[in-house]
Target: HD domain-containing protein
Amino acid sequence: MQVIADLFIQSGDDAYYGEPVTQLEHALQCAQLAEKAGADEETIAAAFLHDIGHLLPPELAGGYMDGYGTIDHEKLGADYLREMGFSEKVAQLIEHHVNAKRYLVYKKPEYFARLSEASVKTLEFQGGPMKAGEALAFETNPYFREILQVRGWDEQAKIPGLSTPDMAYYLTICRQCLEYAQN
Model:
């Protein structure tokens, strides 16, 4: 877990692209929302780590979204955590949280109207709304419901000054998930 802690120590105080919170505040709030909703530990860990791809070293990035973070951060983060030994569920929830935004914009036009300016900007880099065939395929993902939940928490986790448990608390949950996945 030290490697994850180090990523947050190095970049967690950076602004969360176009939003009024830091990367760490966003991660903590997202995990707290998952926990309050009664999510399992893997889902809480995924909520906490969903944007870890933005914190990875620049040499791992395939490019940047004009000041809005790392292109394909969701895939980079999921692959990074798979290599660490996290479960496929954790990886899938992270890898598809951007697809959830694309899906919801396609499926629910009112969802697009609720997106922050930064989220609208990144949507352009992320492929825009899904097409019908993409949406049908996405709906078959075994973690579809949980992916949409992570996306919802992601959208809500942008409140300046909100009190949350600290990073060590959620790193303990991540450690338990990693130990479980490796046994």
